[in-house]
């Protein structure tokens, strides 16, 4: 009986947390699909309810900061800032998992420490470095920063996942004459598909949702990413809440779709977070 009561309480608490968590998203969506006159007394007022896509069209074609261009910019940056660090980190993680070399432990500890460094701590020196390299206000500069920022956690994730793979398969391939790089490409990477898809989806989502680093590096109106453009939709004397919420909904849809597509790989890949060795 005590076990059943505990289960019921746990389910009720989880349900309440879920409702509190989803309520702001529901409110944003309801404002996005309704005319502004219907939400003046609260989005929960349904005396009038006339769903419309007008707000989404206005957000995509905003006169000063069209979100359509911002979504394209974000997709380009997030895609390149996803592929590059995952490939580099996979190579580094395999080296940490399978090979012994000088200062290996100290290098790995450095990676762990880098994960704990907040972005705000390096904002000023990072901005100065980007200026000296001529990469300020460029897609390349933002992609390189996201790549560097994503490498530590991806290396940790994949290194721990590689440690769970059976080394006997690699040794058998090495006996057959396969090189280390061939083993990595043809054996390790296919076996690590769940982890690779997990880090790919997470890296894409984090870059897509980024605002701070984009604000630091990119400032030309035509280069602004989606998260920046939502802020600029707010006028000086008037705030179009319906258009803002429609834009926020469009930006949120992409991570939701990615999670829905790769959901089964998240659980399989989470084993990569288990610390070993």
Could you give the topology of this structure?
Layout: H1 2-32, H2 54-60, H3 67-98, H4 104-115, H5 123-132, H6 139-163, H7 167-175, H8 180-191, H9 193-209, H10 212-217, H11 226-232, H12 241-269
Written description of the protein model:
By secondary structure, the chain is mainly alpha-helical. It folds into 2 domains: 1-52, no CATH class; 65-273, MetI-like (MetI-like fold). It is built from 12 helices and no strands. Helix 1 (2-32) runs antiparallel to helix 12, helix 6 packs antiparallel against helix 9 and helix 9 packs antiparallel against helix 12 (241-269).
Q: Spans of 5+ residues with little confidence (pLDDT < 50)? A: none
Work out the count of structural domains: 2
Order of helices and strands: HHHHHHHHHHHH
- For the record, what CATH class of the largest domain applies? Mainly Alpha
Q: Considering the protein shown, what is the CATH homologous superfamily of the largest domain?
A: MetI-like
Strand content: under 5%
CATH architecture descriptor of the largest domain: Orthogonal Bundle
CATH topology description of the largest domain: MetI-like fold
Radius of gyration: 23 Å
The major pleated sheet works out as: none
Q: What share of the residues lie within helices?
A: over 70%
Question: What tags apply to this protein structure?
Answer:
277 residues, mainly alpha, MetI-like fold, 12 helices, globular
